[in-house]
């Protein structure tokens, strides 16, 4: 947790939508931080807008359809919202699906039914949930790893890559690692530079983006007020 996965998922989705790319963000984290952020964004960009979540991700799992789940946030950006009930996802698949292949490919099958409606689908995953992570990986064509410059985040990224390789071999997945995006824990920190150097050793420099995401108060404000392009930074 705290590696910037949700912030990156939400911000990338927002920016893509402003470029005219029809984007869907799927919140697969029961903490539902992406849902909260994007619903705030919906309100911030639509004066008088009221909450419009009729069904969440877990409801879509149970009804075996995601067709009526997406909520429009702004033009070209939609959300499949999550809620705390998604914590029951592992229990649901073990109680209702006996075949391991069908357990692992459940979300992929449901997303395949709606993927033609979007140019890109971004899946936000929780810090720890083997069942959710497997479903998200299998449903994806590309993987972006968010790495905060802390030792435990680096260890977690190394474990994640091992799981990624294992799933690719097991199911012969056609999956590409886009790269590793570093998120600074502290701007210009010595520990941050040390972790960045270790990451280059572990993952090969070619797999790490040159772009580094700094700590920014502005991004923290987006979690409180929603994302807008109305401040001075965007008008320069």
When the domains are counted, the total is: 2
Q: How many whole angstroms does the radius of gyration measure?
A: 18 Å
Q: Estimate the global geometry from the Cα principal axes.
A: globular
Tell me about the largest β-sheet. 4 strands, mixed
Distance between the termini: 34 Å
Query: What is the CATH C level class of the largest domain, in words?
Result: Alpha Beta
The fraction of residues assigned to DSSP E strands is: 15-25%
Q: H/E element string? A: HEHHEEHHHEHEHEHEHH
CATH topology of the largest domain: Rossmann fold
**Based on helices, strands and strand pairing, what is the structural class?**
alpha/beta
Strand order of the largest sheet: 2-3-1-4
- Which residues form runs of ≥5 with pLDDT under 50? none
CATH level-four homologous superfamily name of the largest domain = P-loop containing nucleotide triphosphate hydrolases
Summed over residues and divided by their number, the pLDDT gives a mean of 88
Number of strands: 7
**In DSSP terms, counting alpha (H) and pi (I) runs of 4 or more, how many helices?**
11
**Portion in helices:** 40-55%
What's the architecture of the largest domain, going by CATH? 3-Layer(aba) Sandwich
């Amino acid at each position: 947790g705290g590696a910037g996965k949700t912030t990156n998922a939400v911000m990338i989705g927002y920016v893509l939508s402003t470029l005219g790319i029809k984007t869907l963000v799927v919140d697969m984290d029961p903490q539902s931080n992406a849902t909260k952020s994007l619903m705030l964004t919906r309100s911030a960009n639509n004066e008088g807008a009221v909450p419009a979540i009729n069904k969440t991700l877990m409801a879509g799992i149970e009804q075996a359809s995601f067709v009526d789940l997406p909520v429009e946030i702004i033009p070209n950006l939609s959300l499949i919202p999550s809620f705390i009930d998604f914590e029951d996802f592992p229990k649901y698949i073990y109680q209702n699906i006996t075949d391991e292949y069908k357990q692992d490919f459940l979300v992929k099958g449901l997303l395949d039914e709606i993927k033609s409606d979007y140019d890109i689908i971004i899946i936000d995953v929780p810090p720890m949930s083997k069942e959710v992570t497997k479903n998200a990986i299998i449903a994806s064509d590309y993987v972006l790893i968010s790495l905060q410059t802390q030792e435990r985040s680096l260890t977690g990224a190394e474990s994640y890559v091992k799981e990624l390789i294992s799933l690719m071999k097991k199911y012969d997945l056609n999956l590409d690692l886009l790269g590793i995006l570093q998120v600074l824990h502290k701007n210009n920190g010595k520990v941050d530079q040390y972790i960045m150097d270790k990451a280059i050793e572990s993952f090969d420099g070619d797999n790490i983006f040159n772009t580094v995401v700094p700590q920014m108060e502005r991004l923290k404000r987006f979690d409180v007020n929603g994302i807008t392009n109305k401040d001075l930074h965007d008008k320069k």
